[in-house]
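As a warm-up, study this chain.
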Amino acid sequence: MSAPELPFFVYGTLRPGEVNHDLLLRGRTLREEPARLAGAVLYQGPGYPYAVEQPGGTVTGELVTPLPGAYARLLAELDRLEEYVPGDPRNLYARVEREVTVSGAVPEAATRTVTGAAAAAATGGDGDGDGGADGGGDRDREGAVLRGGGHVVRAWVYVAAPAVADRLRARGKLIESGDWLDRR
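Now compare it with the structure written out below.
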């Protein structure tokens, strides 16, 4: 079974202006949008960060949508960069599907942020973001869940594998802001 073609949430050296963005993503993306991952914190690694899943935390990064036709190759290259092999207990990272909240202006052809009466009209919900009458969550026409000041999108995220996460929690250096760019 192949993995779904989801965008990627990047939070470290794959962010714009960072070394791996230039090597792997420059010219290969359709969109790069500011985003946040709830339920995770960031730890300093040896030249790169680790997101560790933890309730109450938030990690800042970008949602990266690859160009059409570039997805399979880019997924393989990102897995290689992160030294991720599905099912391998030696992985430093796990590639997991998570919800991220995208902020800022969003192209009309992509998902849109809609609130109040406009959300109700677009989604059939009641516009308050609590799931409307059907309990399924207000959504825009393209299916993104609408919340507060952004829209929620399912994305691939590389998080610290369980053994690595345990070591980081025990003796790692937390990046308090949740933003890799603040480490400088």
